[in-house]
Design brief:
With 348 residues, the chain is of the alpha/beta class. 35% of the residues lie in helices and 20% in strands. β9, α5 and β10 form a beta-alpha-beta unit. The structure holds S-adenosyl-L-homocysteine.
Length: 348
Amino acid sequence: MIELLGKSLSELQEIMVSHKIPKFRGKQLIDYIYSRFIFDFQDMTQFPKSLRDWLEKHCTITLPTIIAESISPEGNTRKLLLELSDGSRIETVLMAQHYGNSICVSSQVGCAMGCVFCASTQGGLFRDLTVAEIVGQVVLFRTLADEAIHSLVIMGAGEPLQNYNNTVQALQLIHEPYAFNISYRKMTISTCGWVPNIYKLADEGLPITLALSLHATNDTVRRQIMPVGARYALDEVLEAVTYYYNTTQRRITFEYILINDVNVSQDEAHQLGRIGKQFPNCHINLIPVNGNEHIQLYKPSNKDMNTFKDIVSSYGVSVTIRKEMGDAIQAACGQLKAAHGRKEEIHE
Ligand code: SAH
């Protein structure tokens, strides 16, 4: 079976031509999938019956299946637990913001990074998502939301820069005017600091926004909460991010989880302000940690969070405390999946 989802226009045209089907059918297929959201070949009535039957026999358009859904009480955050064709499960979140719909996409099943605060990595990495599976999350949400998607963040389960080729290829397809026509500036890749591929992405020439999960201002604390910190020192990570900024001129986002008694001293706030100051126009997103019975980490008091923020802000850096939009619906990374039990995944 040939999977048609995730293929570019030229790839679909090649498939058509190599099977002696006229090339223009490729564009019609793209329009059915990404503009009309028709996935059943028999409903593609512009095609002769013979072509519909051929497609049905040889091709497939596989969207993830919805296993569970939670909608926030205000109705503006919608989270889906999705099952892929091999039974693996991932999460995708759609957030209705004042500027439009933003979608948070997963890049891997599980994650190898082992950050202590993150539910998605508790069972390790199972596998990379394919281009079709990354794009499939967007297609599915687009059909459900029935309105345009304004922006996209690769901030769900997984380390996107470890699944580099599929992630970038998926974003290239999503960007195409014939697919979702989302500009690269409205796409964000969030990384824990996978240094070599920060350089690689910078050299790709795509103005994608980079978000760095910083979470600590020194190597000692960073290694305690993010094992990747032992592989790449903070200096190396910040050097790579500097290269990204200099090459793309894109405003960098830093994510910093606020964990009581771990990384929220006033000294750390000053240090975070100093780091932010090195990156013109950067934005620092402070994220109150979301705990659960397995992740026994707690957010600081509102007063402490505000003090932390004010210190960072005193360095002239743009800084906000993230609204806990997803909290009520277990939108924090991996938590819906964890709440539904883990379908058997075989780890090697
Ligand atoms: N591997 C990538 C992307 C996935 S994690 C990265 O590290 O950036 C993306 C973000 O999920 C983290 O930066 C953090 O902001 C958020 N996150 C993970 N676990 C969380 C938790 N327990 N509470 C709050 N935010 C969390």
